[in-house]
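User: Design a sequence. Structure:
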């Protein structure tokens, strides 16, 4: 459908769950609009970078701050550790 497979399927699942759980005309129209809007956004994302979802998920795993250290095996004293928090 032009976008990342998992994002397209998940957005379709969420729109379908909205439609079938609410069972109203307004919810159906909103679910269909949500589905086409998400599909449009997924296609734009796939055109920009096909692996954008993987890049974003890797970015979320990174820490917000990495203190400067000479080696990853260095043992800091408690007073040194407090200044990095």
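Assistant: Done.
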């Amino acid at each position: 459908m032009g976008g990342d497979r998992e994002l397209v399927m998940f957005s379709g699942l969420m729109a379908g769950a909205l439609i079938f759980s609410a069972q109203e005309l307004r919810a159906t129209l909103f679910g269909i609009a949500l589905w086409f809007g998400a599909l449009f956004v997924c296609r734009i994302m796939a055109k920009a970078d096909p692996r954008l979802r993987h890049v974003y998920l890797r970015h979320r795993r990174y820490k917000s701050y990495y203190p400067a250290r000479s080696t990853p095996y260095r043992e800091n004293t408690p007073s040194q550790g407090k200044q990095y928090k």
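The mean pLDDT is 87. DSSP finds four helices and no strands in the chain.
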